[in-house]
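Hi R.,

As promised on Friday, here is the backbone we talked about, encoded as structure tokens. Could you run it through your design pipeline when you get a chance and send me back a sequence?
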């Protein structure tokens, strides 16, 4: 469907773990008398079926989203399963419910298809490894569908719950807060149950339950923060928050002049290179560091700059939320605002953060009653110790000059 699929490295860890647990524990217990190689073959095949099923589960979400005009940035398969990363949230409660419910429905459909096939193979007395693999595939898809219906973020059931509350109250923020509170209660009960399971002697299952409880709690808080930010920035464009008077440098000055007159004076992480009002590129601290000291008196900025076609830039009409997400994906702290080849301004992560903070403080974009703490509100900005570029709190390596930063206290 034109959607990139990314496999996170943690998927390989859980693939090995599932294969091992099936080959050593579950399959020998359910189907005794087979060879060790057969058990490992069943384990590998079953793990492959599981992750294909997870991918199809996520594709069902993506199909509904794309059919209704919502772009999907990518699908990521990782330790806990998979996630469809939407470029924007659904703006309609019914669409949210449809998208969320599509995943569990697909899992139950796969479980039914594999279950019928398993039963037919069993009646036909086909080889036991095939029967065992199909039986596990049917069972794990039924479990996957049921687990995702738990009414807690970031599971599908949590989104169905939020969509239902959204439709009832006609208030996305209120619905998100209510769904988040329910999710947190469920996660705490799961973690309590996991600790109890550990105490009563089942360490492995107990740890799994605790980790899943923590995952749900973290996902619920993240979903609430993302919703609050999205509502706060609703209707705000890059043009509204960008800095217009940008300090630029000409392409014909020497690198040593750039250092003396710009880098050591203004301490910004990068400077647009402009000639006759036309944007040519961007020169950064990293560009300067790539030039040996003995050549800085003969090399010019135009020779070392990053060309315009390689510079991450945005149009002034782009939404502030999309700009923030673009900076996050590119792992940079600023974007040049360019129209054709004309530099209009610059927007930084700090500009977006200040806008969010100010609008929330003034009660613009989100209601203030019963407000919950937001990750964005607690985010602070700092400056690189080497280039002076603006960084988010917690960043340990400057994206502008690649220098290491002291650990936040």
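Update: got your reply. Pasting your designed sequence below so it's all in one thread:
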């Amino acid at each position: 469907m034109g959607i990139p699929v990314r496999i996170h490295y943690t998927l390989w860890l859980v693939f090995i773990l599932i294969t091992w647990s099936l080959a050593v524990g579950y399959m020998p217990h359910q189907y005794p008398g087979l060879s060790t190689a057969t058990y490992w073959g069943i384990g590998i095949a079953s793990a492959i079926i599981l992750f294909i099923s997870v991918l199809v589960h996520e594709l069902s979400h993506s199909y509904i989203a794309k059919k209704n005009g919502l772009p999907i940035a990518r699908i990521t398969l990782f330790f806990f399963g998979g996630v469809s990363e939407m470029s924007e949230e659904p703006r309609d409660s019914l669409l949210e419910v449809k998208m969320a419910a599509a995943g569990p429905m697909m899992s139950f459909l796969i479980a039914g298809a594999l279950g019928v096939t398993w039963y037919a193979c069993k009646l036909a007395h086909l080889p036991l490894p095939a029967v065992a693999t199909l039986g596990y595939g049917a069972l794990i898809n039924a479990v996957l569908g049921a687990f995702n219906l738990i009414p807690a973020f970031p599971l599908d059931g949590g989104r169905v719950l939020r969509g239902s509350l959204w439709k009832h109250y006609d208030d996305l923020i209120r619905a998100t807060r209510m769904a988040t509170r329910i999710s947190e209660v469920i996660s705490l009960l799961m973690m309590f149950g996991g600790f109890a399971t550990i105490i009563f002697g089942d360490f492995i299952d107990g740890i799994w339950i605790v980790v899943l409880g923590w995952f749900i709690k973290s996902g619920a808080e993240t979903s609430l923060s993302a919703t609050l930010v999205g509502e706060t920035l609703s209707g705000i464009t890059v043009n509204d928050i960008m800095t217009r008077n940008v300090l630029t440098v000409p392409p014909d000055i020497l690198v040593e002049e750039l250092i003396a007159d710009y880098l050591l004076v203004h301490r910004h992480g990068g400077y647009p290179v402009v000639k006759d009002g036309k944007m040519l590129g961007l020169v950064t601290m990293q560009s300067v560091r790539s030039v040996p000291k003995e050549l800085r008196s003969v090399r010019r900025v135009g020779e070392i700059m990053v060309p315009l076609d390689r510079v991450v830039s945005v149009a002034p009409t782009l939404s502030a939320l999309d700009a923030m997400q673009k900076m996050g994906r590119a792992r940079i702290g600023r974007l040049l605002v360019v129209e054709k080849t004309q530099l209009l301004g610059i927007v930084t992560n700090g500009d977006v953060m200040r806008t969010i903070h100010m609008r929330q403080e003034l009660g613009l974009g989100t209601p203030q009653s019963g407000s919950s703490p937001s990750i964005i509100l607690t985010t602070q900005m700092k400056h690189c110790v080497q280039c002076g570029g603006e960084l988010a709190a917690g960043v340990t390596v400057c994206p502008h000059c690649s220098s290491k930063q002291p650990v936040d206290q």
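One thing I noticed while checking it: The first strand starts at residue 5 and ends at 7.

Thanks again,
M.
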